[in-house]
Amino acid sequence: MSNVDEIKIDQPALSFENSPESDDEQRKRLEIEELIAQNENRQNIPVNTLQKLALTSYGFVNDNLRRILWPQLAGVDVNTLERAPTLGELQNHPEYNQVVLDVNRSLKRFPPGIPYEQRIALQDQLTVLILRVIKKYPNLRYYQGYHDVAVTFLLVAGEEVAYAIMEQLSTTHFSECMQETMEATQRRLMFIWPVVNFENPELYQFLQRSTVGTLFALPWYLTWFGHSLNSYKAVVRLYDYFLASPIFTPIFVTAAILLHRSNEILKEDCDMASVHCLLSRLPEDLPFEHLLKTSSKLYDKYSLTAIENEVEVLILKEKEQRNVEEKMLLERRKKLTRSTSTNRSYNLSQWLPNLFTSKSLLVTTAVSIVVGVCAYYYKNQYLSAGIS
């Protein structure tokens, strides 16, 4: 498993409430249904058409349509799916226990009221799905949070299709997250800062002064926000968007959220604990359709090359700052060591002369004589009594 800290933020229970379909959602659904009806072979819908539908408002609208369109968008041929092995066939995998542990923690990601037997079956399918991927690609490392992505595809598309989608995403979108260490992912998260700085320098400076870092955004990036949102509808809408977008798009969605919350953030105390606490909890009323439009504009506006150059400068500054801080700490330690050594020498030099004054020598000699006399007396008493 990758050496990433466990995502310890309490995972919210997903809300699966079916809200009434709006007029705009209905129009979008009818448009998609007509497109599907016009294509007898559903695999023939052009990818750019699917991408446009996924990126524009409301995405694929509902799970019935997602079940048809997600595999195509991910490049999966549903006619050539592999048979799923049994759970018993995978129990010897070294990551088996960790995967089972994480899957058992994912109860809140299943629909409420689901029959016990069905839930257990889904958990077993989720475990098999994950282990199949990392067994087939031993160079990929399972990370905690991967199951949050997999369970979303499992609930929508079923076990075999979900596996095929996760196989594709694990070798593309999530491949960086599945390296031996999280170093590349942590560096990727720093791409947030140049985008924020380009758009809102005041917000950027505030966040840098707070030293909040990017840990708050790690679960968002690793799970496509699936771990951090409590609205199932919002999660699958984001998955529409991410499936149709370039690999690093979650970075731009994160930047869009920070920019959207700028007024709220700037009112917070400028310290790491306060800002991290504020950012790590996503508001329930985030306007995701607006945020996704902002994200797309940001992606088109700023090239990855320009952002990467800014990140290099930022990394260099942080390294220089660490060197300065380490040097100052070393100097303080040296001064403390010298001060302690001087004080000890001074105390000893003060104490020794006093110890050997004529008065102290006289007292010491007298005590020694008394102790010797007592020892001699008691020894003779013990000998006369027959005690050896």
Give a quick set of tags describing it.
388 residues; mainly alpha; 65% helix; disordered N terminus; disordered C terminus
Give the helix/strand class: mainly alpha
- Shape estimate: globular
What share of the residues lie within helices?
A: 55-70%
> What's the oligomerization state?
single chain
Ends apart, CA distance between termini:
70 Å
Strand count, sense and closure of the main sheet?
none
Q: Could you report the average pLDDT, rounded to the nearest whole number?
A: 86
What are the low-pLDDT stretches, counting only 5+ consecutive residues below 50? 3-9, 355-388
Describe the secondary-structure layout:
Layout: H1 23-38, H2 47-55, H3 63-73, H4 96-104, H5 116-136, H6 146-157, H7 159-170, H8 183-189, H9 192-199, H10 201-210, H11 218-223, H12 232-243, H13 249-260, H14 262-266, H15 272-280, H16 288-301, H17 304-355, H18 358-384
What does this structure look like?
The protein is mainly α. It has helices spanning 23-38, 47-55, 63-73, 96-104, 116-136, 146-157, 159-170, 183-189, 192-199, 201-210, 218-223, 232-243, 249-260, 262-266, 272-280, 288-301, 304-355, 358-384. α13 (249-260) crosses α16 (288-301). The radius of gyration is 33 Å and the shape is globular.
